[in-house]
Amino acid sequence: MSEASLLRAAWVGRMAYGPALDLQRSLFERRKAGRVTDSLLLVEHDHVFTLGRRGMSSHVLASAEALQAVGATVHETDRGGETTYHGPGQLVAYPIINIRDAGLGPVTYVRLLEQAIIDTLSEHGVSGHRVVGKTGVFVGGEPGQRPADGENPRGRKIGAIGVRVSAGVAMHGFALNVSTDLDYYRHIVPCGMPGMPAASILSETGRRAELEDVGRRAADHLATFLQLRLEWVQSGSLAA
Hints:
By secondary structure, the protein is an alpha/beta fold.
């Protein structure tokens, strides 16, 4: 099997958003230049709200004082999408992939990321699904549906996706709530959808999954869909 068909993946663990973005960008530029193969970073971030290319500062509802009180920062970034949250208990996957070499367009690639989330959730007893016209993975039905008395709100979002593609190479990726503190979502208009509730594997099942284990299974699914051979490495070897 050729080097071009290799996906080198690393469990990075806890990392602030800024350094993770710098590492991504380094890999992204080297991948575009053909100096490295496809890569995957699996990260758990400190509390941060990120604004994508369509994000608006007004979608961060908390004041600077309130953000400081909850230990969160705000970071503008160049991914697609609007405003979202990253934090402890959430798996963030950053595939740096030459989707052109894989024969994928951006939309097909996003659908592939959604399917990797859906299949990973299924292994943890959670039924995730797509919603027509919206990016990401949901549980419980369509967003905005009125729940029956005593039921959870429907259309809860459990997985968010935002990517950037340049010269056929994709960066950024997806965030999957595993044991995330969902209360942080009240500080933003998530993905431009006011009042949309969030969900996690923990909130849906009552069971706490190990973040690294969830990440490794998501990586397996992603590599399979991309028809790449998965190789686990230390995060430092990707940064070198």
